[in-house]
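Why do we care about 3D structure at all? Because function follows from shape, and shape follows, mostly, from sequence. That is the central idea of this module. The next example makes it concrete: a single protein chain, its amino acid sequence, and then its structure expressed as tokens.
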Amino acid sequence: MGGDLIRLGSRASKLALWQAEYVKKELERTASLPVEIVKIRTTGDMILDTLLSSAGGKGLFVKEIEEALFSGKVDIAVHSMKDVPVDLPDGLGIVCVMKREDPRDVFLSARYELLEELPRGARVGTSSLRRQAQLLAARPDIEVVGLRGNVDTRIRKMEEGEYDAVILAAAGVRRLGWEDKIRQYLPVEHSVPAAGQGALGIEARLDDKSAAEMVAFLDDMETRLAVCAERKMIECMEGGCRAPVAAHAVISEGKILLTGMAGRPDGSEIVRGSRSGPMDAPVELGVALAEELLMRGGREIMETHRQTKE
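And the structure:
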């Protein structure tokens, strides 16, 4: 750490800065060192005319921040866990996973109250193949249109009539204080969230033990275990932002219930499944559910998707 100052790396979007400010306040409230937020523009922030599934995936939002960690420009970084690739660079690690916000997807529209009320041919905006696959499985009569930009940009485009509706993560909408714009929370059974959705993670250099100790009080064990199971399932399916796969875990009565999904982007085939296991075995649970989904048709879905990207 630079002298008596903790340097916290963050993207410069409104939502990312909200997240960074939240961590900053928590650290300054409990630690004796002041925190400086270092804004870092990532490749993902600069590429706005291409969907992530075509531009290179989630790593686009963390690459430059991780380079800042390696160089010592920042001491820690805060990420939305759904933006963090399952494979981290050697020498870096997620040293803290904070208590999760609502992980569900939400439906926003200036004209319609429910997804079911959309007319045939309605234009629905989303940047996610995961959401696209599940939307089209439920409503094959609508048109799913690519949507990039920050949360506020996406909502503005919807309100200006460019889209009849948009699907976003509840956590981001709520954190920015726009909960009143949410028309419908989509049930997890119909729209399985992205792995890590709603959870914030703090990344640091693994050789910087003081950083891990400093943020340890922010770690939420149940969220960490749930996210671990989700990310392991995605890893075993060789999925990520470029693939229509999803995983969501909840913990109850000492067990983890993990739900997973793999689907074709056009919604023509969706494979969903759930498994439960002990809290102390999230990795094994993620592996087991991935194997089940792959065996039930997920392997063909993933192979076909990879071939279309090559």
